[in-house]
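This protein record is not my work; I was only asked to verify it. Take the sequence as given and treat only the tokens as open to question. I have pasted the whole thing underneath without changing anything:
***
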Amino acid sequence: MTVQPPPDSGNVPAKLWNRTLASVYSMAEKWLVMKFGGTSVAGRAQWETIASLADNRRREGFRVLLVCSAIAGATNQLSALAKNPESELDLAALMDAHRSLSHALDVRPSSWLPEAEFLLKQYLDLIAGSPVPKAQASLLAMGEWLSTKIGVQFLQQHFNASWVDAREALMAEEEVNVSAARRWLSASCNAEQDLTLQKQWAGLAPVLITQGFIARTAEGETVLLGRGGSDTSAALLAGRLNAERLEIWTDVPGLFSADPRLLPRARLLSEVDYAEAQEMAASGARVVHPRCIRAAAATHIPVIIGDVNRPAVTGTRIGDRIVERSGVKTITCQEDMVVALLQNLDTRHHVGFLAQVFDIFKMHGISVDLVATSETTTTVAFSRRINHIGSVELDQLSADLRACCSVDLFPDCVCVNLVGRGVRKALAQLGPAFRFFEQRPLLMLSQSANDLCLSILVNKGDHEILLREAHDALIPVDESGPKNVFGSSWEKIMESA
């Protein structure tokens, strides 16, 4: 947002005035944004850690904004209610979980329960009358509303804290050629600095708490930023406030060389740059959302990942080009992928064939992740989860594609991604791992144009074996390799915790 110079400022250009104003604000009010995920806001111990971390940052001289997710499981309960708004069982489970949290935090239910019951009834009635994505967005937003309304009451037992509505700060951008589900449930916002917002929120308590996952339309209606959107909210708000840094607190201390739940010997990554981190996140590293990295990169705000259960462990730092090292840093798995084999025996002589195919994907509001072509076959891969594609939508897509080619669908695939700078060089090291395909099908192989990712599509169930073999071939064993890239393994971190 651009603030116009006052009348008595002479002929000072607006851009220079805003740079000067931003400098004054940054000297007076240093902002720090801290994001806490669903497992990080679920109990007394976690909220004690949140309060301690926020108080420490406040004592360091920061104004602190806490961005919180719904408690673990709440969004799933709300999703069940969106499908069956008359389910007393799901509603009772949702409310019982929040009453339990309220009791654990010594927060009086009367401070949040009456308003919560009123809003939930209003939104459930709305969905019962019209179960469209627009109505679902308001209901699903209640998870973050509940966690932060209870959370602020707990924080106020420790220091001066205020609740703010994220919709005051984040407005969705208009997008064309997207489905209604994408528009209302996975909206996009910009991270442009907002001096007016900074001034307004600087007049409130030194510690503020707000909701992740939520934004508004220009008309003031609630939209969501997609599952995992609290990360994105935090990065967008960090940009709006011109924050010194963004801290993301979750249940692991950072990005690893593989999912530590699948591979305990996976190693913590000490530092990665924005481009690598975004590729990792987009390729299935669930610690941080790719749109979060994109927003942070746009505003050059460093991101620090920490473990709320092990706050002393130094986590991953993400920023501008930090580590100048080629090679694979992580191997990720992206589930819920669809691979479509589109065959046309005259592809190279059929002018506009690919344009026709992608017009069909565009018509269905589907963003394609990977493409490979040959003389007769075009192979396309896309995410069911990100595109909100169910069985009905997949059948409709397949029917429309058959108008111009034959279609073979593999609807339950996993994309195993090798991510790091100069990933092409990794091919020479993959000989032993590629023996994996002597007994199993390779559905698709794709190399990114930026030389950051090599993607291997396989059937679900085959990916864990491929992950282990590729990790053994490409990642140094614990305590070896460059220290500014690889830290300790997950199993060693757990042993020392």
